[in-house]
Amino acid sequence: MCMLLSERDTGLAEREEFRGVFVEFFPRLRSYFRSCGFQTADAEDLSQSALWTVYRSRERFRGDGDFDAWVYTIARNLARDEWRRRGRAGAAEPVEESLPDRGPSAETVAAGREELSQTVRAFDRLPARMRECLLLHVRQGLSYDEIARRLSLSLPTVKVQIWNARRRLRSLLDSSHG
User: Fold this and answer.
1) Contact partners, residue 174, CB within 8 Å, separation at least 6
2) Which of 56, 65, 72, 64 minimizes the C-alpha distance to 24?
3) Mean pLDDT of the chain
4) Rounded CA separation 156/159 (Å)
């Protein structure tokens, strides 16, 4: 009987501990999914799914990497899978041919894709800490103070990292255009 009580207490403790993870990550993940183009309700559903996966897979996190990165990898995979699922479902729907095409031309789309590809390549060339600070500021909307606390960095270091990341991105993009 003592064994059952201690197992139950352990499960309760794990759920209580995970409640903190949920409270911290749910708003961040909802914001991430919104930035991926999902409506608010879908972003909330996907956030819950991501956190449920984190909870179920918590034993697989070995602790040798960044927990935030692990959570966002799960979220990114969920977003990708959802867009793929929607793409397949959308392909089966009939297209209304009487609607005028107000979208960008094929040339504009191709140029946009090439520019995005160059930007991603330039971004990937940034040092990891610069990328991380810039992403937290731009994608997550975190203040410099919040980034400093989250990454255990000084405020001046965060400011310099973001400033250098932007400067280096500009330089990399200018060199790829020229």
Assistant:
1) none
2) 72
3) 80
4) 5
d(CA 78, CA 80): 5
**Interatomic CA distance for residues 161 and 135, integer angstroms:** 11
Phi, psi of 34 (to 5 degrees): -65, -40
Give the CB-side neighbour count of residue 110, counting CA atoms within 13 A. Answer: 3
pLDDT at residue 155, rounded to an integer: 94
- Residue 92 confidence (pLDDT) above 70: no
9-13, 65-69, 156-160, 173-177: which is most confident:
156-160
- Which residue ranges form the domains of the chain, and what is each CATH number? 14-88 (1.10.1740.10), 121-178 (1.10.10.10)
Owner of token pair 């610069």: 130
CB of 45 within 8 A of CB of 86?
no
